[in-house]
Amino acid sequence: MKKNSLKRVFSALALTAVAASTVSMTSFAETSLTGASDYFEASKIGFTQDEIDASEIKPTITVSNEILTLKEAQENRTRIATITVGDARALYASTGLHVYYDSRLTIPKNELNKPDIEAGPGGKYLATKTPDPDPTAQDQGMSGIFIASAADDDNGLDGVLWQIKFELPEDVAEGDVFPIDIFYKSNPNAKDLFTNAKNNNTGKLMQAYVFTRAINNGFTKSFDASAVSYVDANGAAVSAADAIEKCPALKDVDGSTDGVIAIVAAAAPPETTTTTAPETTTTTAPETTTTTAPETTTTTAPATTTNTGNAVTTTTGSGTTVTGAATTTTGSSKGATTTKPATTTKPSDNKKDDSPKTGVAGVGVAVAGLAVALGTAFVLRKKED
């Protein structure tokens, strides 16, 4: 590498750094760069957007997005943000970037008492300049640093170009979002760079493409919380939807932001449901009382007594016929049968109304009928004889 080439490159970079660190609002007023749109137009370095979009080299520049829980943030407040280059392997040499970051963040010092910023694998073949603070970043309500690299050939690689350590504030809280932004700066004496060693037309178009298309500028490309990728403290991928759900402030990040460090809310503990066992009621079956049906008393119908001549035929309720002396039977309601000696009635003195009397009503009629029948039968038999 030629020393003179490096001196010239770093002189230009130093001018940028000096401009960034000492320029006042008056100095920038000389260039009429008073707002983001002015800096965006200046980043085209004289090309139209159509010419820039036709550049044969279209690098990608990304800043990391890290998601942390509050516990992780408190246990390790030092975080590392990365700036990564893609699609430009061995195509660039000189770089000069202003990095603006949330004013609550600080960059710790290394053992040389310099800002703890290191070149990553993508810049390992590039010479780097000592990072310089940019106090004018406060005009944007942020803090700033200027980082630069150079080479006498296109030695820049794809991969992490810069690693920047940031210290989170002691009062870091859930929901905090710390933006990190690559902010294009220029003035008449110097401008930010991303070009090849020759700084020819190809290199200049590549540079214009980086600042108008590759980084978020709020005009042609903007930060979209739902479209960027996130990693957790262990480097594992986090879905955008999950990150936004746990840190809603991500939706309010300015469009020019390139990367963030966000503190997400811890997952809510699962609700504990206490189930009380239902009271157990012991029901004792009522005592069973056995009622014995009363003894059944069978009442036998009173016997019917039929007097035939001197014989008495008695038919009982059970169907048994007993022949014997005529008796008078009186039935009781409980089935008790009382038998009295039969009463013998003497023949009447030929009176019409004198019927034989018996101990049972109606029996005299039956006996008289039977006597008539027997008498008739006797008369008929006499005639036959």
Overview of this protein structure:
This protein is α+β, with helices and mostly antiparallel strands and 385 residues long. 22% of the residues lie in helices and 26% in strands. It has helices at residues 3-22, 25-29, 36-42, 49-53, 70-75, 201-214, 240-246, 363-384, and strands at 60-63, 65-69, 78-86, 94-102, 117-119, 127-128, 132-133, 142-150, 159-167, 177-182, 186-187, 190-191, 193-195, 230-231, 237-238, 259-264, 304-308, 311-315, 321-325, 327-331, 337-341. The strands form six sheets. Strands 2, 4, 6, 7, 8, 10, 13 and 16 form an eight-stranded mixed β-sheet that branches. A hairpin with a 5-residue loop joins strand 14 and strand 15. It is globular. The N and C termini lie far apart (184 Å). The model is unreliable at 14-31, 288-292, 296-301 and 303-385 (pLDDT under 50).
Can I get a quick summary?
With 385 residues, this protein is an alpha+beta fold. The protein has eight helices and 21 strands.
General form: globular
Kindly name the structural category.
alpha+beta
Give the rounded overall mean pLDDT: 76
As a percent range, the share of helical residues equals 10-25%
The sequence of SSEs as H and E is HHHHEEHEEEEEEEEEEEHEEHEEEEEEH
Separation, N- and C-terminal Cα atoms:
184 Å
Largest sheet: 8 strands, mixed
Tally of strands: 21
Radius of gyration: 64 Å
Strand content: 25-35%
Unreliable spans are 14-31, 288-292, 296-301, 303-385
How many DSSP H or I helices? 8
Characteristic key phrases:
385 residues; alpha+beta; four-stranded antiparallel β-sheet; 26% strand; globular
